[in-house]
Amino acid sequence: MQQQSLEDYRNFIKSFTQLHNDAKKIPLGESSPSDLNSNPEFKVLIFSPHPDDECVVGALPLRLKQELNAEVINVAVTLGSNPDRKSGRLKELESACSTLGFHLHIPIENGFDKVYLSNKKSSKNEWLEKINIIKDLLLKEKPKAVFFPHNNDFNSTHIGVHHLISDALHLAMQEDKSFSTHVFESEFWQMMDKPNLLIGLSEEDEALLVYALAAHTEEVLRNPYHINHPARMLDNVMRGAEVIGGQGEQAPEMDFAMIYRHSIASNQKIEPVNLNNVVDVKSSLEDIFS
Predict the structure, then answer these.
(1) What is the CATH number of the domain that holds 89?
(2) pTM over 0.85
């Protein structure tokens, strides 16, 4: 009996590896435009450090678009650090956003350069110019929610974008005392401290995210991280069940999920909400904003 169980697990791992390898053969760079119609009164801004982050952290924005008719705008903070790839990355990004039904906004032509925390200290005037551009966008769009990386997400541009958007939010609140929004910090390169929100995703929507991510052709040829995305989402369910749902709690009934830290920006402060929230595939998203 034990030998048979071991053989079953061997077959499971063999099948898993074969499926993963087969996925590498799926054609890249394709796209299928989605409907852009949405409610302009419910705007969501994703501040993406690089082209592809709109897919990598896009579970909740995608559900908000589909279920609450949100208008999702992907703000491409940079188009990468390689000048020779910027035009190519922009075309890939346009395909990915079209597939997800996200609008695309580039803050300045070719995106910002050197969005690093070190530049905040060494190039104060340049940093202030970037802050003001983002602040003006926030005050113009008055988003219901904004997404950006947490402050320790390993990659220097991810960390830089965290501080850039945080500074812009504080400046927006200073200029317009009534300005407020929901803040969702995301993680990719490194886990965040004290996440408080786990968002489930259906098989169909996970497939859509991976399909859109595969539109970033040159990036996933270098490193096929698009086909690793489901494994990351599976791991999020296991980890989020304990870290967010509570130690020793029953794992939620879902296969894929994304982890966020939910805060409220209001009255000159950005403060995490007090409630840990696990939202499965069938649960309403409206309670998050109540």
Answers:
(1) 3.40.50.10320
(2) yes
